[in-house]
Structures are given as C-alpha cells and as structure tokens.
Amino acid sequence: MKLLIRILFFVAQCYFFISCHDKGKPSINKDNLQALRVNDTHREWNSHHPLDTMFPIADNSRIALDWEGIYRGIVPCADCEGIKIEMVLFASGTYRLTLLYLGKKHISPSTFEGRFEWDNSGNFIILKDQLNDQFLNKYQVGEEKLFLLNQQGQRFTGNMADKYTLNKYYSDTILTEKYWRLIELNRKKIENQNNAPYINFTDKAIRGSSGCNSFSGIVKITLSNKITFQNIATTNMACMDNEKNNLEIMFFNALNTAALFNLKNDTLTLFNNKTDILARFVYDYFGQYTP
Predict the structure, then answer these.
(1) pLDDT at 153
(2) 206-218, pLDDT tens digit by residue?
(3) Cα torsion angle, 199, 269, 111, 75, sign
(4) What is the CATH code for 35-169?
(5) Where are the alpha helices (H) located in the chain, listed in sequence order?
(6) Which of 80, 151, 161, 203 has the highest Cβ tally under 10 A?
(7) Rounded alpha-carbon distances, angstroms, from residue 65 to 28, 61, 118, 145
(8) CA–CA gap between residue 33 and residue 42 (Å, rounded)
(9) Do domains 35-169 and 179-283 have the same CATH topology?
(10) Calpha distance 6→12 (Å, rounded)
(11) Residue 226, C-beta contacts closer than 8 angstroms, at least 6 positions apart
C-alpha cells in the first residue's frame, strides 16, 4: 500500500512539473505560425515573439563578449579586387554597414543602416533592412571578430576561411599608409567633403591633393611630436572657383607653417610653433590610399 502511495505521489509531481513547464513556452497557433519565416540561414519570429527574447543562453557571444564597436576587413570578390567592409554595431541594436568594391572605377562606398537581432543561440546576428525590415545578412560574432557566412549559413572553410573575417578596430597612433582627409582649417569646418584635401604619409614623404592639385613632399617627424613639411611640389591646375582657390592657399600655408602635431582617436591635428591649431584631419578608412 505504501509503495502504491509513493508511485501515485511521484506521478502527480511529474504531471505538475510538466504542466508548469509548458506554460512558459510560446503558444503556436495559426496566426503566429504564419508569421514564422524559415530560410537556409536563419529562423525568425514576428514582433510578438522577437528573436532576442527567446531561449536565453547564459554563456554566449551576446552576453559574454564585448561585441559593440567597429569591425573592418577586406573579403574576396568574384569580379573585383576585394570588398572593403566596415561594420559598426551599436549597443542600441542598430548597425551601419559600409562596402566599397575595390579596383572598380568611379565606384563610391555604399552604406546600409538598420537594426540587427540575435538568433536563439545568442551567437549570431541577423541584419535587417531599414526600409522594409527584411533579412539582409547573417554574421557569427566571435572574440573581437565577425565571421561572414556562406549561403548555407555556415562559416567558410579551407584556405580562404580567414579572408571572410572582420576584425574589431581600435584607433592607434600610426600615421603611415592611411588616408587623412581634411575636416577643419584655421578653426573652420570644411563643409563640402567632396574632393576635400587629403594627405598620405610614408616614413619620410607625403603625397596628396589640395582639392585642385596633387602634391608631394618630404616630412620630418620627431618623438616629441614635432613635424615639418619640406620641398612641397604641386601640379599647376587652376581651381574652378575662388572658394577652392582660397582653400588651396590656406591648406598649403598650414602645411608650410606646421611645427607640432597630435594624433588621437583617428584625428590628426597640426599646430604652429605657438600651438595654434592650423588644421585637423580624420582617418578615412574608405579613402583611396596611394603609396
């Protein structure tokens, strides 16, 4: 008799546990079944059952990693030299994706913005289009990396696998092999950034454009943040209007009188010997660096 009572009590406990457990599951009915969309690379619920609130996993990329930030890289391209990519993930759950097809003439960077969602595992993000909120692409989130996925939603394998990776970017204090675009001159913002002056640095030389003319010269930099530009030679093209002509004159004057510099957060600032600000440049990842 005691054995029978124990068995009935055990069965009652199991029934209670199962009933409570089922209450926590999202109910599947005709309406939300129609809203469930499945393709080769991801599964997505409608706004009533968002991806990022279902089945939380404690130890995943979303929770364990510092995923917010900038990711950059150049990935293979079938009909160009490569695709230059910058992905910015914001803590708000939005993104900005910029692409540039290298080696193609008269091609400008294309920028896409929208929101992203985490999949059920918390290890993948799904980019949504800003206009119609439709699926665009899917990435696996790793330690300071984003992995592009193939059409089956899997990581690339083989000898080319590493080339389908974007690495997290941190600003540094390197001047060389970067495109420095002018954003401020004599404390005035350069409003029109189309064809704005820029500088490229090598170890001992510079080259760039004033907006009207190309130029080259010698640069000398010391450890105490002293800088001088020497022997600047330019082409002799006439500027199309007075505004560009005046900008070119002030730009070369800033280079010729520069004595000190500061480099912080991808911004290069030039000063004269009285520490007056002459010009500010920003590192443009999509600028066409020409060594």
Answers:
(1) 87
(2) 999 999 999 999 9
(3) positive
(4) 2.40.128.640
(5) 2-23, 30-35, 61-64, 242-257
(6) 80
(7) 32, 5, 13, 10
(8) 16
(9) yes
(10) 10
(11) 259, 260, 261
Domain ranges of the chain: 35-169, 179-283
Spell out where 45-164 has E strands.
69-75, 82-89, 94-102, 110-118, 124-128, 135-142, 145-148
Contact 56/50 with Cβ under 8 angstroms?
no
Residue 198 parent element (H or E) = strand 198-201
Question: CB of 178 within 8 A of CB of 195?
Answer: no
Neighbours of 138 (CB within 10 A): 20
Cβ neighbours of 266 (radius 10 Å): 18
What CATH number has the domain spanning 179-283? 2.40.128.270
Residue the block writes with tokens 């391209």: 77
The secondary structure of 220-253 as a DSSP string is: EE-TTSBEEEEEEEE--PPPSSHHHHHHHHHHHH
Q: What is the pLDDT of residues 177-201, one digit of tens each?
A: 999 999 999 999 998 888 899 999 9
Q: Tell me how many degrees the CA angle 33-38-42 measures, rounded to the nearest 5.
A: 130
Q: What confidence tier does 257 reach under pLDDT thresholds 50, 70, 90?
A: very high
The CA distance from 137 to 153, in Å, is 9
Hey, what are 91's tokens?
A: 């803590």
**Spatial contact of 106 and 37, defined as CB atoms under 8 Å apart:** no
Average per-residue pLDDT for the chain: 82
Q: pTM for the complete prediction?
A: 0.73
